[in-house]
Structure formats: structure tokens, C-alpha cells
Design goal:
With 210 residues, this protein is mainly β. The chain has 2 helices and 15 strands. It has a 4-stranded antiparallel β-sheet with strand order 4-5-8-9. It has a 3-stranded antiparallel β-sheet with strand order 1-11-12, with no helix packed on it. It has a 3-stranded antiparallel β-sheet with strand order 3-2-10, with no helix packed on it. The protein is elongated and about 95 Å long.
């Protein structure tokens, strides 16, 4: 049996962040590319202060003080979120979620019909994939016999089998696909590689001496 212990995707960059600001009262909307730590003016009337980016948003209750705290469960963009301070009257702090936009109103208690009539939508575009790798475990009777890591062009070998990383599902970070192969005839092929030039050499020099 083969069990997937962990799967990770590496990107060339951290990705791009886009926020669409729509004024429901005045009837305009504008899209702006943002980066955490910077401020942006939208339509000369709304200031966005992008405070924090969390790639894999989670929230839990602190046992010490009973307060809720946010953190990132991993570096993978499984649940990308932005914490943004919006200055438009009134000023407020919001969490924006790329995959689950409905959570924004859940965490801030706001609706689209507030005094400022602003609706914010967050879109995250992941960076180009650089590498994806899997940590796998070889098991028998619920016992781990061996473990290793496989990535593109770097197969994991066990018991004469080669485990190649062949693909993944961008929408499901817990899924990984492999190509498993076993080539018992490889030593014969390598032996052929050695015997071929040896035979040519003997044929060449043997014919020359005759």
C-alpha cells in the first residue's frame, strides 16, 4: 500500500492580488492590483490599506484569553485571505477571501447595504508552478515499511519500483497522482549497452588484423 503523507506545491512567486471595489450607491466599480503592506486610492474616494496576507486562513480560540486569533495553516494558497483597512466613511477593517467571498461579511458582520454602500471582492491568482512534490509512505498491514519523497524528475525507489510524480489537482491540495513502474529487464539493457561498443571494437580490430 502507498499512503500520501504530505503534498506541497512550490511557485516562482507568491501570486497576484486583485481587489474590486464597487460603490452600490454611485454605480461605479474599479479593479486594482494590490500588494500587502501598501496603500491604494480607488476612484479618489476610497483608501485601501492592505495590512496582511494569509495564504491558508484559519481561525481558532485562544485558550488563555478566550479571544479568536487568525493564522495560516500552511504556505500553500489553500484559503487566501487579505486583511484590509478601508477608509471611506466610516473607516473599518475587513477580511477578504478569494475562494469563499461570503465569509467576508461573516467575519466583519457587514452587509452590502451599509452607510458607505461599498462591496469589496478579492481575487487571487497563484504564481506559476515551479515544482510539486509528495511525501509518501510504503505500508503493509498498517505498518510503515519505508518513506520517501518524490517530485518531477526525481522518482522515489523501493523494492524495485519507481514512483514518479505525474500530476496534481490545483483545486484539491490533498490529491496527488503517481506513475509506478518496475523494470526487471533494465540490467539486461545496460549489459547490452556495454556489449555493443565492445563487440564493435572487437569486430573492427579483428577484421583489421585479418
Amino acid at each position: 500500500q502507498v499512503r500520501l503523507a504530505n503534498f506541497s506545491v512550490e511557485h516562482y512567486d507568491s501570486g497576484k492580488h486583485w481587489i474590486q471595489v464597487a460603490n452600490l450607491k454611485e454605480g461605479w466599480n474599479q479593479v486594482v492590483e494590490v500588494q500587502p503592506g501598501n496603500e491604494y486610492w480607488v476612484n479618489k474616494s476610497v483608501r485601501l490599506n492592505v495590512l496582511r496576507y494569509v495564504p491558508d486562513f484559519r481561525v481558532e480560540k485562544d485558550a488563555a484569553n478566550g479571544q479568536w486569533k487568525t493564522y495560516s495553516a500552511s504556505l500553500a494558497p489553500n484559503n487566501p485571505a487579505l486583511q484590509v483597512e478601508v477608509t471611506a466613511s466610516p473607516k473599518r477593517m475587513v477580511w477578504l477571501f478569494a475562494k469563499y467571498p461570503e465569509l467576508s461579511s461573516h467575519f466583519t458582520g457587514e452587509t452590502k447595504n451599509k452607510e458607505n454602500h461599498l462591496d469589496l471582492t478579492y481575487q487571487f491568482v497563484p504564481g506559476k508552478v515551479k515544482q510539486f512534490r509528495s511525501k509518501i509512505e510504503i505500508m503493509k498491514d498498517n505498518q510503515v515499511l519505508a518513506n520517501g519523497e518524490t517530485s518531477v524528475n526525481h522518482p522515489f525507489q523501493y523494492g524495485g519500483y519507481n514512483f514518479f510524480q505525474s500530476g496534481y489537482n490545483p483545486e484539491d491540495p490533498s490529491f496527488s497522482s503517481f506513475q509506478v513502474s518496475k523494470d526487471p529487464g533494465v540490467p539486461v539493457v545496460y549489459a547490452g549497452f556495454v556489449l555493443l561498443p565492445l563487440g564493435l571494437t572487437l569486430s573492427f580490430y579483428g577484421g583489421r588484423n585479418t
